[in-house]
Amino acid sequence: MKKLLVFYLLICCFALSKAQEKAQQKYDVAAFVWPSYHPDERAKIFWPEGIGEWQTVKSNQSKFEGHEQPRYPLWGYINEADPYVAEMEINAAADHGVNVFIFDWYWYDRMPFLEGHLNDGYLKAGNNDRVKFYLMWANHDVNMTWDKRNAGKPNDALIWKGSVDREEFEVICHRVIKKYFSHPSYYKVDGKPSFMIYDLNILIQGLGGVENTKDAFEWFRNETQKAGFKGLDLQLTLRKSGKGVTGIAGDKVGSQKEVIEQLGFDGVTHYQFVHFTNVNRDYNEILGDVEKEWNTLDTEYKIPYYVHVSVGWDNNPRFEMFRGGIVKNNTPENFEKALRKAKDFVDAHPKQAPLITINSWNEWTETSYLQPCTMYGYGYLNAIKKVFLEEK
Questions:
Q1: Cα angle: 329, vertex 388, 343; to 5 degrees
Q2: Which of 70, 193, 237, 286 could form a disulfide with 181 if both were Cys (CB 3.0 to 4.6 A apart)?
Q3: Measured on CA atoms in the order 370, 371, 375, 378, is the torsion positive or negative?
Q4: How far is CA 252 from its chain centroid?
């Protein structure tokens, strides 16, 4: 009798394991998160109302006949640093096939900036096991672009520098390892926590050249292993193929590809279509050049290229004056076409992580978001669900 009971339990465990395996999503659909939609005292220099960049979204207006603005959030001006709001967002993301958030992460004047969405929202949400997360260090300089009252005007002064020296780099890395890598929902590739860097030029300039940057990366990898991890999965957001990299005092230190190889990155992706192609045209026309860029990178690089899809681009909400360069016809139906191409790319690369990066979860002021809006409802999220959850 006991043997039969044990046998029965083994069968149940096997069936449960198979069911969980079947339920597990095959693709890692990762949306970048712009964490500016919550109260933050330090951010009041840009958005004095105290609700983050919702202040800019609220003032959005159409600037010409046929301009598909303004677009407003269907959920309203939510506080994304509230754990109960974060739970809603996580459920909406997971239910539609977005199973990774890549948080834009900032560090200026020797302290973090805009961590509320991550620390007080996502990390305190009771369901954060449904959507994994990792960090993209947005190490760019900051000028007046976030301040609509002054954006694009002659007094567009530098506010914060994104570059850091070696001492500060080590402070950042220790914080990231201790505070984030150890979280059970932190995203990993082959057991190695992923960490992405946004601006290669600024990083190299701050650390004092390519060799110093390479040494800093080796130190970072060693510290990650000391903390008990298998290693570090170091990623980079690319610019256009063939673009050069500059070091100290703007000196050219090599091509983007050469420097990436020297520094030993583990994977590359993009943050936005606007970084490598002309976006002032129809979305379907853009996709043709985007696919060519994917294939070029796949040929050029020995490390994985994680295929990238952007929803669109129009950063007019951030400016009082008109800004050229607007993606046209980026409907949910056309976005779905891009997702299918990305899915095919992943299927053709079974030896690398099935990671697809998307811009973005909530870049409202750049008009590249997945969150439901007053124009398309849940259209963009439903496109992801249709491609990655409903079709096997």
A1: 70
A2: 193
A3: positive
A4: 27
pLDDT at residue number 23: 53
Closest CA to 103 of 190, 19, 185, 162: 185
Q: Hey, is 5 helix, strand or coil?
A: helix
User: Quick check: 10 pLDDT over 90?
Assistant: no
What pLDDT is attached to residue 244? 85
Write out the two tokens for 373: 């809006």
Where does residue 138 fall: left (phi above 0), alpha (psi -120 to 50 degrees), or beta otherwise? beta
CB contact set of 27 (below 8 Å; sequence gap of 6+): 97, 343, 346, 354, 356, 388
pLDDT of 18 over the 80 cut:
no
Residue 331 CB coordination number (10 Å): 18
Q: 3-state class of 262 per DSSP? A: helix
In the predicted structure, residue 338 carries a pLDDT above the cut 60: yes
pLDDT in tens, 64-118: 999 999 999 999 999 999 999 999 999 999 999 999 999 999 999 999 999 999 9
Distance CA 13, CA 383 (A): 35
Strand, coil or helix: 160: strand
DSSP 285-309: HHHHHHHHHHHHHHHH-SSPB--EE
CB atoms within 10 A of CB 176: 22
CA–CA separation, 236 and 254 (whole Å): 16
Structure tokens at 94: 């997971």
Among 245, 338, 244, 359, residue whose Cα is nearest residue 294 = 338
Determine contact, residues 202/233, Cβ cutoff 8 Å.
Answer: no
pLDDT in tens, 255-277: 999 999 999 999 999 999 999 99
- CA 172 from centroid of its chain's CA atoms: 19
Burial 272-300 (b: 16+ CB within 10 A, else e): bbbbbbebeeebeebbeebbebbeebeee
Contact, 235 vs 194, CB < 8 A? yes
Q: Which domains does the chain have, with CATH numbers?
A: 25-390 (3.20.20.80)
Q: Which residues pair with 101 in a beta bridge?
A: 31, 133
- CA-CA-CA-CA torsion sign (250, 251, 253, 257): positive
| Local structure of residue 275 (DSSP, 8 states) | G
Tokens for 91?
Answer: 């459920």
